[in-house]
């Protein structure tokens, strides 16, 4: 059993007969009253996000997980196929386990958290950013740069991302996987 002082991002816990992963947490020590921990939890079975507050010293049941490196092979409907890079064993995961499945390119390496008790995959941790090629972008209108103007662009995985006006088809861009937003243009 762990307590609220052991809470950190990425920790998997059992709560309300489900397994949750901690996305965000904040230790709060108000001037009056006891301390508490505000958390944002994501269910690893259905993907729903839940806000919860634990009082300081509250006991939480930790789930033991192992992280393994997997390579994304291909999508098939709502199923995504991965291969363990060490054992070459293949697994199939549902789309709702992934944080941002529309940014996943074939051949991309991800970390899969596996429950050590049941040997079932719990979550997939994407890399912090991915580099994708723009396959479609409206042409930028000259003189439309009074503010930080953006346009939508489609990348090679089919995802739509808001990008600055100077991005054209064929450009490679870096995308933040946590927010799905444009970071920078990549020169080769």
UniProtKB/TrEMBL annotation:
The UniProt entry, under CDD domains, shows: S1_EF-P_repeat_1 (cd04470), S1_EF-P_repeat_2 (cd05794)
Q: Which UniProt keywords apply?
A: Cytoplasm, Elongation factor, Protein biosynthesis
InterPro entries with a match to the protein in the record: Elong-fact-P_C, NA-bd_OB-fold, Rib_uL2_dom2, Transl_elong_fac_P/YeiP, Transl_elong_KOW-like, Transl_elong_P/YeiP_cen, Transl_elong_P/YeiP_CS, Transl_elongation_fac_P
What family does the Swiss-Prot or TrEMBL record give for this protein? Belongs to the elongation factor P family.
Q: Name one GO molecular function term.
A: translation elongation factor activity
Tell me the ranges covered by the Elongation factor P C-terminal domain, including all copies.
130-185
The protein depicted here goes by the name: Elongation factor P
Q: In which pathway does it act?
A: Protein biosynthesis; polypeptide chain elongation
Xref: PANTHER family? ELONGATION FACTOR P (PTHR30053), ELONGATION FACTOR P (EF-P) FAMILY PROTEIN (PTHR30053:SF12)
The species is Flavobacterium rhamnosiphilum
- What biological processes does GO assign it? peptide biosynthetic process
What is the purpose of this protein? Involved in peptide bond synthesis. Stimulates efficient translation and peptide-bond synthesis on native or reconstituted 70S ribosomes in vitro. Probably functions indirectly by altering the affinity of the ribosome for aminoacyl-tRNA, thus increasing their reactivity as acceptors for peptidyl transferase.
Q: Where in the cell is it found?
A: Cytoplasm
- The UniProt record lists the Translation elongation factor P/YeiP central domain at 67-122
SUPFAM superfamilies named in the record: Nucleic acid-binding proteins (SSF50249), Translation proteins SH3-like domain (SSF50104)
Q: Which NCBIfam families match?
A: efp, PRK00529.1
Q: PROSITE patterns attached here?
A: EFP
Per the record, what is one GO cellular component?
cytosol
């Amino acid at each position: 059993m762990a307590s609220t002082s052991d809470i950190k991002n990425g920790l998997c816990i059992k709560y309300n007969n489900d397994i949750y992963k901690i996305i965000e947490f904040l230790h709060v020590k108000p001037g009056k009253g006891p301390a508490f921990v505000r958390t944002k939890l994501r269910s690893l079975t259905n993907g729903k996000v839940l806000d919860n507050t634990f009082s300081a010293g509250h006991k939480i049941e930790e789930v033991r997980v192992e992280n393994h490196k997997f390579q994304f092979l291909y999508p098939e409907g709502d199923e995504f196929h991965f291969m363990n890079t060490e054992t070459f064993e293949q697994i199939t995961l549902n789309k709702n386990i992934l944080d941002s499945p529309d940014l996943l390119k074939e051949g991309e390496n991800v970390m899969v958290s596996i429950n050590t008790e049941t040997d079932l995959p719990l979550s997939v941790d994407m890399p912090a950013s991915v580099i994708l090629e723009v396959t479609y972008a409206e042409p930028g209108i000259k003189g439309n740069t009074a503010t930080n103007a953006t346009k939508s662009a489609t990348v090679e995985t089919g995802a739509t991302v808001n990008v600055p006006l100077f991005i054209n088809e064929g450009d490679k861009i870096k995308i933040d996987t946590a927010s799905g937003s444009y970071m920078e243009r990549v020169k080769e």
